[in-house]
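thought: fold this chain, then report.
action: predict
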Amino acid sequence: MGRTRRTWSAAGVALVALALTACTSEDGGRPAGSPRASAPADLAAGQVAPDGAATDVVTGLEAPWSVVRTGDGPDALVSLRDSAEVLELSADGETRTVGTVPGVRHGGEGGLLGLALHDDDLFVYSTGEDGNRIERYALEGSAGSYALGDATTVIDGLPANTFHDGGRIAFGPDGMLYASVGDAGASEDAQDRDSLAGKILRLTPDGDVPDDNPFADSPVWSLGHRNVQGLGWSDDGTMFASEFGQDARDELNVVEPGSNYGWPEVEGTGGEDRGFVDPVQQWATDDASPSGLAVVGDTVFIANLQGRVLRGVPVDDPGTAHEYFAGEYGRIRTVLAGPDDTLWFVTNNTDGRGDPGEGDDRIVQVPLTEG
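observation:
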C-alpha cells in the first residue's frame, strides 16, 4: 500500500531578498521559522541563485537518496535507500509506493541508490549480494498510477562493499548512461584500467560499450576516483563530478574522457606534474562531503552531507562558490532543478549518520533568480 505524507505549502510565497541566516536547531534538523536565501550581489549573467523563502515539498521521507522529476511539474520519483522502495511524489505533495526493487543488499552505505529516467524507462543503481548493478525497469502507467514493469539488467557485478559504492547515474547530453562506481574500499583498483572500481562508466541505454569510449571495449570513461557522488553537464557539454575524499580533501572535477584523477596517489590538488588531473575546487572533508550535483543555468549546485550546506559554483569560474542554508537543514544528499524556476534539495538526516529533526527527511523548494 502507498503511504501518505505531509503536503507542502502553497508555492505562492513572497520573494524577499535577505542575507543568509544561521538559525540551526539543536538536533541538526530544520530550524524554527522559514529559512531564506539571498542571491549574491555579484551574480553574473546566466548564473542562477536561490533567492527567497524555502518551503517543504514533502516531509517524512526515510533515507531518500535520489529524486528524478517525471515532467514539467512537481511530479517525481524518489529512491529510499534502506527500504529499496521507489516512491511517486504527486503534485499535491503526497507519495505512494511505485514498487520495491528486489535483491537489494542493505547495510552501511548500500541500498537503493541512483535513479535516472530515459524515454519510458526508469534506471536504478542498487547494491546486491553478487555485486552492484544497474537495472532498467519499464515505467508503466501515468502520473498518479506509475508502476514498475519488467526489469532488464544493464550491467552487474560492479565492485561492492558496505561503503564507497558510488551509485549516481545520469544520462548525458549525448544520450549515453553515465554511472559512478566507488573504489569499494580497494583504493589501488582505482588506478587499474581493467577494474571498474573507482571509475566513471559510460554505456549505451542497453548496457553496451559505445564505440567512441576512450578505451577499446571498456565502459570506463575516467579513472582514479575514490567515490563520485554527483554528475552533471553544463549547456556547453562540460561534465562536472563531485567526489568524496578520505581525510584531507573533497573534490569538484571537470571530467574528460580517458583522464585520470589521481586517487589514491593524490587526494585533492598536486597531481598535475604526475600526469593526473587536479580538481577545479576542493574543500576540507569536514566542510563538504559533496554528494548530488545539478547544473542549472550557468551554476553548478552541490549538496553537502558533512558540511551541511548547499553550494553554488559558477560554471565559468569553478574555483569559487557561494554557500546557502549553512547548517539549517542538516545533511543534504542531492539537488535538482525544480518546477517553475525553483531549486529542490533533499535532506539526509535519517540515514543513520545525521540527527533527524521533526519532519525529516524532506525535499525543500526555493525560488531561483537569474543574473
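thought: worth noting. Residues 1-32 have pLDDT under 50 and may be disordered.
final: C-alpha cells above.
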